[in-house]
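This week, study the protein below.
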Amino acid sequence: MSEDPQKLKKIAAAAYDYENDSRWADYWSNILIPPHMASRSDVVDHFKRKFYQRYIDPDLVVEAMPSSAQTGSAKPTSSSASSSVANGEARARSAGSTARTSGTSAGSGSNATSLRWDRHTIQFSVNAWVFIVAVLAIFPLVPRSLSNRAYRLSFMGTACSSVYSLYALYGRPRAWTLQAVQVYFQSVIATKDFIYFIYCLTFVTSHLCLKFALIPILCRSLERVAKFLRHNFSRSTLYRKYLEDSCVWVESNNTTLSILSSHAEIGLGWLLIVSLFSWQRNIVQTFMYWQLLKLMYHAPVTAGYHQSVWAKIGRTINPLILRYAPFLNTPVSAIQKWWSR
């Protein structure tokens, strides 16, 4: 399977967990762009790729900012907006070089650093707890009542972690009006935290207990725990002796874990369809989950992995339909058009 190296690098850059990397907060705080552009997801994604190129993978090719992102919706301020974006990139480059030479400096930014440390510590604690509880839910020797309770607690913990992360990164709507809430919603709907919040909400409110659904939760919590340990305990003797190899493996196999999660998420969609023929059917949950799968197919943070899995499914199923059930071509084409919209 020959894939475009840059496409894989872009997928890895989109899937990178920026909020748990303290360097990203420093990088983003040094970018000077107008507030109306800082809230746009395409602008944020552009600077995330620039950050990923600088600190993670220098071989990643980052295209120039699209003209539509520079001009924005206010035409009279297009020149100032584009110059602000350029100034933001220059400021980010100078901030990156300063960070490399000076390292972690104390002074005027000490309060912000302590706040970021508190946020990351809280996220680490919640994700470590979720990982332990999820393992407890999957372990076969655990009593059924305890396993089912751990199953629901895993989703509740991940949902709380996602909401906290969204609040820390995006705050809350500027006003509780329909327009302000809609703008806020559009800025967070394609983020991984929002997707996982809806994912957890779909299963924690259902009486159907699918332990298979814990695979993406385990992968997510494992990635975040390993990243926090590597960044904050790399000098600890205990970490080097018992945890370093495992954490290095997790961080070097983020793509593998994301592919595993996407396979599990799509497999769950088919399991929910099968469950419609049982006494545990839940039509509302199935409908909501397939809407979520559609969002995962289009959201930049998950699109690469989900589109790859669906392409494999298409290569397997389409020849069988053409050969044994050609009458299904019309409904399948209609479903594909709806899915691609």
Observations:
- Residues 112-341 form one domain.
